[in-house]
Amino acid sequence: MTKPHALVIGASRGIGLGLVRELASRGWTVIGTARGLSKATELTALAAASGGAVRTAVVDTADAASAETLRDSLKDEVFDLVLVNAGVGGPQDMTTRTVSREAFTDLFVTNALAPVRLAELLVKTVKPQTGVIGLMTSMLGSVDGASAGGFELYRASKAALNSFTRSFAARHKDQGLAVLSLHPGWVKTDMGGANAPVSVEESTRGLVNVVERAQADRGDGFFDYTGATLPW
Ligand SMILES: NC(=O)c1ccc[n+]([C@@H]2O[C@H](COP(=O)([O-])OP(=O)(O)OC[C@H]3O[C@@H](n4cnc5c(N)ncnc54)[C@H](OP(=O)(O)O)[C@@H]3O)[C@@H](O)[C@H]2O)c1
């Protein structure tokens, strides 16, 4: 039987690297991307030791030309899963009053525009009717759930991503893809910090369970790593 095949975008470290490990441990073949392979030492070591199950590719998601080059290099792949994980925390000490146009633009291009642009560029490589596209968002992107202040720029960037994701899912409905907005939990990574309660291993085990469930039930939605549905 052919192994399921995945692309994880933003896999140099943190949750993305953990997703590559978890998928490979379940028998998937995986391509993990990094902005540059020289710094992605854990990913390249994982690929080198995998006997061909894990491969690497390069993309700076915020750069449209780089995203198109990735699309061209992957045009012959057939994926069961494309998961865009790359994201940034942005300028957390800034508010809507103090943020510069440049910092705001960088955050929104990376967190909101780039993931859906990649999904759009790669949609033809995903198996119709059985394939899954995952976009890594955050529960902080829930407009319904935004009852506390803080992280306002980051929240808005992920809310914009959620909106783009729903439009993308609606536009590609006839392809029968399952389109998932995924919240990984508050995870111990460079972004989540040392006090985060969830390990990369626990988060990625749960996220891959959610993906494998979607392969069978084909439901779109906003899910956390435990499989719970989150409010938009
Ligand atoms: N950790 C949490 O608690 C948490 C909670 C909710 C949501 N999330 C979301 O989960 C995702 C992963 O978070 P994480 O905690 O693993 O963060 P992380 O440790 O900071 O890792 C971020 C990853 O995104 C990549 N990336 C960022 N900008 C990129 C770009 N322009 N092009 C290509 N790759 C880029 C990074 O690559 P480089 O190594 O090249 O920088 C790295 O691989 C993000 O979308 C984040 O918003 C995280």
Tell me about this structure.
It contains six helices and seven strands, in the order βαβαβαβαβαβαβ. α4 packs parallel to α5. Helix content is 39%, strand content 15%. The protein is globular and about 55 Å long. A seven-stranded parallel β-sheet has the order 3-2-1-4-5-6-7, with helices on both faces. The chain has 232 residues and is of the alpha/beta class. It has a single domain, classed as Rossmann fold. NADP nicotinamide-adenine-dinucleotide phosphate binds next to α1.
Question: CATH homologous superfamily name?
Answer: NAD(P)-binding Rossmann-like Domain
Strand percent estimate? 15-25%
**Average pLDDT, all residues:** 96
Give me the CATH architecture, please: 3-Layer(aba) Sandwich
Q: Tell me the name of the CATH class.
A: Alpha Beta
Can you give the helix content as a percent range?
A: 25-40%
Largest beta-sheet details: 7 strands, parallel
Write the element-wise H/E pattern from the N-terminal end onward: EHEHEHEHEHEHE
> C-alpha Rg, in Å?
17 Å
- Terminal residue distance: 38 Å
Unreliable stretches (pLDDT < 50, length at least 5) are none
